[in-house]
Amino acid sequence: MLPLILWASLVGCQVTAKADSCFAQNYNPYVLFSTYTPYEFVHENTDDPVHIPQCRPVQFWILSRHGTRYTDAAGINNMWSLISLRDHIITNSKNGRGTLCAQDVDNLKKWTPQAVLTLSMNLAPQGYKDSYNVARRFKSRFPALLNQSYSPEKFEIRYTNSQRTTLTALAFVDGIFGSTVDVVLPKPIPGDPLLRTT
Predict the structure, then answer these.
(1) Which whole-number Å values give the CA distances from 16 to 13, 42, 52, 190, in the listed order?
(2) pLDDT value at 16 more than 80
(3) Predicted confidence (pLDDT) per residue in 62-101, tens digit
(4) Containing domain of residue 171, as a range?
(5) How far apart are CA 129 and CA 76, in angstroms?
(6) Where is the signal peptide (predicted)?
(7) What is the reported pTM?
(8) How many CB atoms lie within 10 A of CB 83?
(9) Number of domains, the chain
């Protein structure tokens, strides 16, 4: 998501930036970038236990997609192409063209893409964090079911055979149980009838 924000900021810098404002001082930036928006920015902001009169929770199921992942190789290459745009903006600023504040220019000088081709399609750190926090919120909302020690008789975790889904499962387990050490994760089932295999 950061490269997209940077791209939007760079384009915005060329078109709309004013000398009396700094993107660096914007503490409420626009962050709704479709599927690239971290879940932490848009989830329902409550940890309150779910209470329905005359009912009690007896089972918890979740079928979830993996957490936020890095883009494919073409997308990563596109991120790295932003370096030339960044350098062009910095050069223009040095030559008195443009209206970026000094802080924004300094931040641009420090910026480089964080994704490399070997990370293509893998779970991003934000994806792990989001999945962990989703689990923490579910634990708070359904304490009778989820605020207990792990046992394989009570909990089943399934996932497909990819780095992003495996780490998403581990992040969720970590959020529920506070660790993954004693949790038995089964190997992915080839041709799992419930989950996709990719």
Answers:
(1) 6, 26, 50, 52
(2) no
(3) 998 899 999 999 999 999 999 999 999 999 999 999 999 9
(4) 2-177
(5) 21
(6) 1-19
(7) 0.77
(8) 12
(9) 1
